[in-house]
């Protein structure tokens, strides 16, 4: 474990993460940097928002410069430091991660919901549920309240699905939902004899079409060979697989929707694409979401 220290440290190889808190490395990892931060925060402080989400290993939205997020009691003196964003709602620490206090999973998502939008939050919630960190009953009870962020949580709740196996699969599922396309995550395809053929990211319900996210891992030679063999098995079983990259999902959603429309026998409705583009714009993947975050996260990072 990397050493951390409070006060003035003038030794080679140490990094100041904030005045009065230092880490014994020139490139501190998140957990070590937060251990140093913890030295100068009030005793009631708990890491929350995207900071707590990152510590838990949840799927995070698009990377943008962001501060360290903490929740403190209303009775505590307001810590004002560069790179720190303070939530004075007083959500208490309910668990420890490597000795660091965190707000509970539902409270963490609520804090994120004050600043982020649907497309940012659904993958996070999927991963929180998938990892066993999140209790949907607790989240539903929290969302039923009137605290800031609850309205967004109420939009997120019906879309959460623990079956998702990657953040971009979650994003693709939201795309299909925005376009009114019913999909089933992690659908098992079997041949005429009932034998296993493949398990696919998203099945367009009522069709023999599969939509999947193809990440960088598929560029590996062995993985590529395995993918080709899998594709042949799907063709032989009478299924069609369409793979999409992250860039295509974000910037060419119209072509994905149009392709689904064709196999579903639906006519083109531009409102479906409009709904998807609005979600992208409002998220950290889009200009509106990034602008909103910069304004709310006023502390310099």
Automatic annotation (TrEMBL):
<keyword id="KW-0378">Hydrolase</keyword>
<keyword id="KW-0540">Nuclease</keyword>
<keyword id="KW-0255">Endonuclease</keyword>
<protein>
    <submittedName>
        <fullName>Very-short-patch-repair endonuclease</fullName>
    </submittedName>
</protein>
<dbReference type="GO" id="GO:0004519">
    <property type="term" value="F:endonuclease activity"/>
</dbReference>
